Amino acid sequence: MNNYFSIEDIDSLDTWINQAIEIKKNPLSDKTLGTDKTIGLLFFNPSLRTRLSTQKAALNLGLNVIVMNFTGEGWSLEYGDGKVMDQGNSEHVKEAAQVISQYCDILAIRAFATLKNREEDYEEKVVKNFMKYASIPVINMESATGHPLQALTDAITIAEHKPIHKPKIVLSWAPHPKALPQAVANSFVEMMQRMEADFVITHPVGFELASQITNEVPIDYNQEKAFKDADFVYVKNWSSYTDYGKSSQDQSWMITEEKMKLTNNAKFMHCLPVRRNVVVDDAVIDSNNSIVIEQANNRTYAAQLVLKKILENK
Ligand code: CP
Question: Which of 73, 250, 265, 299 has its Cβ near the most Cβ atoms within 10 Å?
Answer without folding.
Answer: 299
